Amino acid sequence: MVKRLSSNLASGIWLIVMIGLWLAFAPTQAGGLASYILVVGNSMEPNFHIGDLVIVHEEAEYQVGDAVVYSNLELGNFVFHRIIAQKLGRFTLQGDHNSWVDTYQPSKEEVRGKLWLHIPKGGRAVEKIRNPYIMAGIAGILGGVLASGFFKSKSKGRKSMNRDWLLTLKQKLRELPAKLGDAQLPNSSLEPHLEALTFGLGCIAFASLLIGLVAFSRPATRTVKNEVGYEQLGSFIYTASASASVYDANTLQSGDPIFPKLTCIVDMQFQYLLIAQQAEKITGTIQLTATVAEPVSGWQRVVELQKEMAFSGSSVSANAKLDLCKIEKLTQALEQDAEVHPGSYTLTVSPNIKVKGRIADHELDSAFNPGLEFRYDRQQFYLVNEEEEDKEVNLLHTVETGALSAPQLEANTIKVFNLEFAVPALRLIAILGLIVSLSGLAFLGKRLRTISQNDPVQLNRIRFGSIAINVQNAKALDSKSALDVSSIDDLSKLAEKFNAPLLHAERNQTHVYYVQGEGTTYRFTLSVREAEPQFSETESGDKA
Length: 544
What we know:
Blueprint: H1 2-25, E1 34-38, E2 53-57, E3 67-72, E4 77-87, E5 90-94, E6 111-119, H2 122-129, H3 132-156, H4 158-162, H5 165-180, H6 187-190, H7 194-216, E7 221-241, E8 251-252, E9 265-275, E10 279-286, E11 289-294, E12 299-304, E13 309-312, E14 315-323, H8 324-338, E15 345-350, E16 353-359, E17 362-368, E18 372-376, E19 381-383, E20 397-411, E21 413-416, E22 419-422, H9 423-454, H10 456-464, E23 468-470, E24 483-484, H11 488-498, E25 502-507, E26 510-517, E27 520-527, H12 528-531, H13 537-543
Parallel strand pairs: 23-25, 24-27
Antiparallel strand pairs: 1-2, 2-6, 3-4, 3-6, 4-5, 7-8, 7-9, 7-20, 9-14, 10-13, 10-16, 11-12, 11-15, 15-18, 16-17, 18-19, 21-22, 25-26, 26-27
Helix pairs in contact: 1-5, 1-7, 5-7, 7-9
């Protein structure tokens, strides 16, 4: 029974190992975790070279520093690069050998996986295997192995069927639930279930060990960034009274050029808005200033348009008077005193906003300072957008996107078949599985030892119950040519050798076991009296 049980356990363990290998190496298209990528460039040198094979596994989270494969929609291909930044659910990546960053920023869903295994020059081997002649040769070899196994199993007949580990495993797993429920029955009811119980507990122990190795090789927790996005919007508005002969109306509007000879005083307004979910206790300050500068020399002067003003809430509006004649005098003083005559100046109006508060339990401490830039050529102030001169109105509006991130510890997970399992839970399952299975195996071992010492007949039932056949009339077997063997173990070896059943007959407190093979009957006789436990004289007296 020990040999048969060891074979069954080996079959179960082999199946568990195959499942683990399948999950680790099978491609995602086939239900596995792996994606295979062939390195075709030098962007990841010196660690990864052209022709290398990288295997990546999908993870629940990706961190800065991870080498990952992602789907680049701009290139229409997969890219293997390293994460260098993360913001608002998007990753910024760069090749280890590149001096520039990738223009495409993938989301978490577009990342195929994190580097799990690197096989130098492995991609070249894969390319060679793709050769039709090599694939045909491999197919032929595999077909020959399968065919030889088929004919070999056919020649062995029933023996190979009995040893089919997959059928044995299915049978044991099918019988296990019902038999586990009988584990608390007396000793006599345990004997038909011992093999299935031992098989099941052994499989549980090995599976728990495998889960434990995977779970304890991963950190129990991971640090994730809980990002909260927000937007800051700003709009400039300026107006002034002007001559209707120069403008469409007698009022100068935002975006129009300003001629100091026609008007010096401009009403400047800035509107600010913070957009965020769960914004609380938002406070800040705002101050409009104007900075006139000469770009070539770096000369500049700052003019306060208003005193710094405190505000609370997610929006504020500031108003001030901009005296362009005063700005013009500052430039004239520079030219007169420094004897310089630049071609033009810049005038930048800034709100200088500082804002604090909380957004979704994240601390906000930010500055927002867009500038509305005019160019002054001694005749007029006008807005200039060197990149988009035909869209000057865009200069009046500014939108800045920000993100608040706070590192948080959470349970690490392992992803299998698109299901995530917490590492601490897997560790607990592995420990409990080992405790239960090893305790059960120890209990069964103790019970088996007790039975072997007290009742050899029952021990034989346990050991050979699956191959023994009870017969009513064994007279035909008791011939003069029957050969007696010295032990039941020798008889079981003959049964295995001849692929024959072990026949059992009971008569007159004697148990006789037979095996027939090649025209010869082999026999072993066990007397119940011989099987009874022996007691010392002291023990006998105590019992009396």
